[in-house]
Design goal:
This protein is of the alpha+beta class and 181 residues long. It is 28% helix and 33% strand. The relative contact order is 0.15.
């Protein structure tokens, strides 16, 4: 399978849809990545990210055979976040997952949960993945609840691995495996 074969149609949920990330999404995405309230939950500090860097990342993602990026929208078409499968290993059938709901008005309303479930279904049934891993900081209680609800299990804890707000925090490594695999 060629990863450029990201579904051209939108994956539809009850209230959320997931589609291929497009260049038109980058301006809004950059604003979210630079927002300190959003940024605190992300894998790295994007506070100094600029448009040129975001464009370079997007060009990399378009060419990558091992990464897929998606936009998350409401059913009415309002763009609210992004998610991605990274470092897809086609031999071992594994990938890393990341998600951000950048529109804070949509936090705690089920959009992230629905998007995670759609990507899991796509990764398992279309891409044939057998393991999806992610990292989440211990203070991101909302995300941890979502990941548990979607079937992710705690694999290990990286003690005091992440420095934020003048303190070291644990990083939880979680994994989703389809039943029977």
């Amino acid at each position: 399978m060629n990863v450029r074969d990201i579904p051209q149609k939108k994956m539809m949920g009850r209230k959320t849809l997931v589609r291929k990330l497009e260049a038109r999404d980058l301006g809004q995405s950059l604003l979210w990545l630079k927002d300190p309230e959003v940024n605190r939950y992300l894998s790295q500090d994007f506070a100094n990210l600029n448009k040129k860097q975001e464009d370079q990342w997007f060009d990399f993602m378009k060419r990558s055979k091992n990464d897929q990026a998606f936009a998350i929208e409401t059913k009415s078409g309002h763009y609210i976040g992004n998610c991605a499968l990274h470092k897809i290993n086609w031999f071992s059938k594994t990938a890393e997952f990341g998600i951000v709901i950048g529109e804070k008005n949509y936090w705690d309303r089920g959009y992230g949960t629905e998007a995670v479930n759609m990507i899991i279904r796509y990764a398992v049934s279309i891409l044939g993945l057998k393991s999806i891993r992610l990292n989440v900081y211990e203070y991101n209680k909302r995300a941890i609840r979502v990941y548990h609800k979607c079937g992710f299990k705690l694999k290990k804890i990286l003690k005091k691995d992440h420095y934020y707000h003048r303190r070291y925090w644990d990083t939880l490594v979680m994994e989703y495996r389809p039943r029977g695999k």
